[in-house]
Amino acid sequence: MHLLSPKSPGWLDWHPDPTVPSFRLPAGTVDTHCHVFGPQARFPFAPERKYTPCDGGKEQLFALRDHLGIRRNVVVQATCHGADNSAMVDAVRAAGDRARGVATVRPDVDAAELQALHSAGVRGVRFNFVRRLVNASPEDDLRAIAERIAPLGWHVVLYFESADLPALEGFFASLPTPLVVDHMGRPDVTQPVDGPEFSRFLRFVDANDVWVKVTCPERLSVTGPAALDGQRNAYTDVVPFGRRVVEEFGDRVLWGTDWPHPNLTDHMPDDGLLVDHIPHLAPTEEQQRRLLVDNPTRLYWPDEA
Ligand code: 0GY
């Protein structure tokens, strides 16, 4: 047996005992952004990783799913596993029709491997531009991947910092697949929602029919998790940003937990509180149904939509 690596210094483990949310998720809710970490003894982390997390395996993910009242998950390959999709695929297969996957692949991936991933439930690849997580990939390599996956009907999930959008958006717009952006493009929520940075992001979304995950308030927030009123209303500084996206692009917004919440430094969110954040972003029942059920079902289970 190989030696297990210790967690990165200061690593925060996922919440052991999340509260039961007050907000009842509608039937068929999909968590479109979550990960599995290992377990390391069975699925070793990639040598090129930039962090070593705690274990967060499929059993814990499914337990959280059931605790929160989520119907289905989209398991996104985490960078700590590099392009070895085994842990993600194992989780997606184990969930049967209750999960889909988003993979990381290399430019030399062959047709048989893509077909095997498709059969397992993978429906997209993730391109990551966050420098603390990955070394940059040449755009030609990424374009080659996008061209290989387009015929399968897959999409590309984009993870980038908002400051990098001006340099990247031309490349994104040239890709031949649907685009999905993680965490609202990581806005600086101390800037006005009508300010130049977020306005540019909204124009990019509009011009390219981009899907947007209104995820990770805990990652974007400066005011933090303090519940300031009786409605478990945490991460209030993120609300205007999420609400704007839900109002403008109601048929292309997606929600997710981001469990097991990699690389947080100041607190670990109570996943129940993250569910209670949803009605602050999407106040009407129709907005909630589109965000939580209709949109993700159309993207990941199109035969049912
Ligand atoms: C997220 C965010 C992060 C990490 C990863 O794959 C990953 O390692 O996505 C992050 O550190 O911001 O979406 O989970």
Low-confidence stretches: none
Structural class: alpha/beta
Shape summary: globular
Report the oligomer: single chain
Tell how many strands the DSSP assignment holds. 8
**CATH-defined superfamily:** Metal-dependent hydrolases
What Rg do the Cα atoms give? 18 Å
Give the CA-CA distance, first to last residue: 46 Å
What do we call the CATH topology? TIM Barrel
**Count of individual domains:** 1
Strand order across the largest sheet? 1-2-3-4-5-6-7-8
Q: Note the beta-strand portion.
A: 5-15%
Name of the level-1 CATH class: Alpha Beta
Largest sheet: 8 strands, parallel
Overview of the structural elements:
This protein is an alpha/beta fold and 305 residues long. The protein has a single domain (30-300), classed as TIM Barrel (Alpha-Beta Barrel). The protein is built from ten helices and eight strands. It has an eight-stranded parallel β-sheet with strand order 1-2-3-4-5-6-7-8. The longest helix is centred in the C-terminal third of the chain and has 16 residues, at 285-300. The protein is globular. (1E,3Z)-4-hydroxybuta-1,3-diene-1,2,4-tricarboxylic acid binds at residues 35, 78-80, 133, 182, 258, 262-263.
How are the SSEs placed, and which strands pair?
Layout (H helix, E strand, L loop, with lengths): L29 E5 L23 H11 L3 E5 L9 H9 L4 E5 L7 H10 L1 E7 L10 H11 L5 E5 L5 H9 L5 E3 L14 H12 L3 E3 L3 H4 L18 H10 L4 E2 L16 H11 L3 H16 L5
Parallel strand pairs: 1-2, 2-3, 3-4, 4-5, 5-6, 6-7, 7-8
Bound molecules: (1E,3Z)-4-hydroxybuta-1,3-diene-1,2,4-tricarboxylic acid (0GY).
(1E,3Z)-4-hydroxybuta-1,3-diene-1,2,4-tricarboxylic acid (0GY) binds next to loops.
